[in-house]
């Protein structure tokens, strides 16, 4: 970000040259605030603030979303930028898998270094105890899906394709948890979990056939229908995802 601002000091690269100084300062502040909002340590508070703002606006304007203040508009923009930052799970499966492999390798390299220094190895950074499938299911359940569902309500139906892909990617990794030897040594999903997953898939197929009354598309809340039945796995630890997930 500092490098970008340095380039903007050159006249031929500065698209904001014609702006008054006050607007330039505001633009700089907006860009900095948007970038800082991608910090995963702020994820939960950002989610809470967005939901509160949206609900309050709808109550005050008879169900319509009206963002009147600068802070309200910036909050939504921060949510959009943050959702883009963690959007790998909404990509087509081959792209998502490629991103996951590269990020997990970064984690493992960090864990290798921590081991060399005699430090405690951070969650998901131990290549001797991998849990890729479980980590991705937890990452989607606790981090990505709640944010994208919130934005899906704000911008329906524009996020619908991403929500559908997100659930397909989740099911891909969930179905592979019991197939992985490294996962079966710990806490593989129970038979009830697998039955619940089959139930979710049947519901999604039914909705896609047109049962949703929306031209076959799922509503934002329906895109995750049934998630609560299968996401509460004892083998998934929520606390590690907010600060360490890809």
Which short descriptors sum up this protein?
246 residues, disordered C terminus
What is the strand and helix layout of this fold?
Blueprint: H1 2-7, H2 21-36, H3 43-60, H4 70-85, H5 93-116, H6 132-154, H7 160-175, H8 181-184, H9 191-211, H10 227-230, H11 241-244
Helix pairs in contact: 2-4, 3-4, 3-6, 6-7
Tell me about this structure.
The protein has 246 residues and is mainly alpha-helical. 62% of the residues lie in helices and 0% in strands.
Q: Strand content of the residues, in percent?
A: under 5%
Continuous helix count: 11
Q: Please report the distance between the alpha carbons of the first and last residues.
A: 21 Å
What structural class do you assign from the helix and strand content?
A: mainly alpha
| Biggest sheet descriptor | none
Which blocks of ≥5 consecutive residues have pLDDT under 50?
A: 179-186, 211-246
Overall pLDDT confidence:
78
State the shape.
globular
Please outline what is shown here:
With 246 residues, this protein is mostly helical. The chain has helices spanning 2-7, 21-36, 43-60, 70-85, 93-116, 132-154, 160-175, 181-184, 191-211, 227-230, 241-244.
